[in-house]
Specification:
By secondary structure, this protein is an all-alpha fold. Helices cover 82% and strands 0% of the residues.
């Protein structure tokens, strides 16, 4: 694996885990009232488009990063709907 690909994967991991504290906080407090559903839906749309782009150009870092962010975003939307 090339150093540039490793750099992309590490950067993607760090970027993706920035959502983890928010997911944990929502889960612990059972409250997502301060999250904007509009922001979450825009985030998901952007991430899905990035994921499609990554798949089309077969870029592992883009696919990996956006798969992780998509997962976190979907969890936050689920919590937003569950913990109204």
């Amino acid at each position: 694996m090339a150093i540039i690909e490793i750099l992309g994967l590490v950067a993607g991991t760090i970027t993706s885990i920035t959502f983890l504290p928010q997911v944990i906080k929502i889960w612990k407090t059972r409250s997502a009232k301060d999250l904007s559903i509009g922001m979450l839906l825009l985030l998901l749309l952007g991430v899905i488009l990035w994921l499609i782009y990554g798949l089309l150009i077969m870029n592992a870092a883009i696919i990996y990063t956006n798969s992780m962010v998509l997962t976190m975003g979907l969890i936050m939307v689920y919590f937003k709907l569950k913990f109204k």
